[in-house]
Amino acid sequence: MTAADKQHALSATDPRESGTQLRAGLWQTINERYPGSMIRKESYVGQARLAKPLTECRLTLVSSCGVHLKTEKPLDVCHPFGDFRFMRVPSGAKHEELIIHQLKYPHDDADLDINVIFPIERLQELSQEGQLGELTANFFSFIGYNMDPEKFERTLAAGIAEAVVEEEHADCALLAPA
Amino acid sequence: MGLIQRAIEARGVPTVSVTVARDVTEAIKVPRAVFLPWPMGHHFGVPFRRDLQRRVVLAALGLLETSNEPGTILDLLIKWADVRREAKTLTEQGRKL
């Protein structure tokens, strides 16, 4: 990063300048490390509304943690631009049946208890207790660190959104980046 | 992840994400999110702290019902140092299970 770039990064529009940034030094490092995370959007999408109370809603979970059933082939964690496919994880799966394949974040704690990054068992409990209507048959998982945001939006984001709405008929979605 | 969240919301399904990188979440302009000042890979806390994991999940789900403004970010400023300290014993017990 050149001096001019640094000056630009600290311009008045930057969230670090406006006081909303809590750990300025750290996040700057993350942005340098993960250039894909520097993409910006000009405007918000309109907020959708819950059509019914949560106790009647069907919830889905989407995560970039790279978790999948031990019986399935993992995604490609070594490709320099990332793997733009996603996997389905049955919402009834238990910790013992799942494994994480991803190299870009520390998942030693998640290996002990998958709910640290993919709270599948907490959601099963909430659904059994009646705090949630139900869970979709499948949850979604992919590996983050995709270096082509445009392709990501066109393929992976559209694909998951399509599956969430058309296949699983979810009423709401919880997203857990890793 | 923000791009996926926007894609789902644009199809009429309300979404909420849990983030540990507030600036990234702000830049991508997600509909709503919960922010935790925790390290990557620990969005729902630490192993075997079911109460804490539930708290984060419930805070996120609550936001689905309460937020009105696109871009609402709820700060759950639970100190990582406290969480980590309590977690140590639990993790050791968990390893023995």
Provide a descriptive summary of the structure in words.
The complex is a heterodimer of chains A (178) and B (97). Chain A is α/β, with parallel strands linked by helices and 178 residues long. Chain A has 5 helices and 7 strands, in the order ααββββααββαβ. Chain A has helices spanning 3-9, 24-33, 108-112, 120-129, 149-167; strands at 58-63, 67-69, 87-90, 98-100, 134-135, 138-141, 172-176. In chain A, the strands form 2 sheets. In chain A, strands 1, 3, 5, 6 and 7 form a 5-stranded mixed beta sheet that branches. In chain A, strands 2-4 form a two-stranded antiparallel sheet. The two termini of chain A are 26 Å apart. Chain B has one domain. Chain B contains 4 helices and 3 strands, in the order αβαβαβα. Chain B has helices at residues 2-10, 22-28, 50-66, 80-96, and strands spanning 15-19, 32-35, 72-75. In chain B, strands 1-2-3 form a 3-stranded parallel beta sheet, with helices on both faces. Chain B is elongated. Chains A and B meet through helix 2, helix 3, helix 4, helix 5 and strand 7 of A and helix 1, strand 1, helix 2, helix 3 and helix 4 of B.
Structural class of chain A: alpha/beta
Q: Please provide the count of β strands of chain A.
A: 7
Instruction: Give the termini distance of chain A in whole angstroms.
Output: 26 Å
Mean pLDDT of chain A: 85
Radius of gyration of chain A: 18 Å
Judging from the principal axes of the Cα atoms, what is the shape of chain A? Answer: globular
Q: Tell me the domain tally of chain B.
A: 1
Strand proportion of chain B, as a percent range, falls in: 5-15%
Return the average pLDDT of chain B rounded to an integer.
90
Q: Give the N-to-C terminal Cα separation of chain B.
A: 34 Å
- Portion of residues within helices of chain B: 40-55%
What is the 3D form of chain B?
elongated
Number of strands of chain B: 3
User: Could you state the oligomeric state of the chains shown?
Assistant: heterodimer
Profile the largest sheet of chain B: 3 strands, parallel
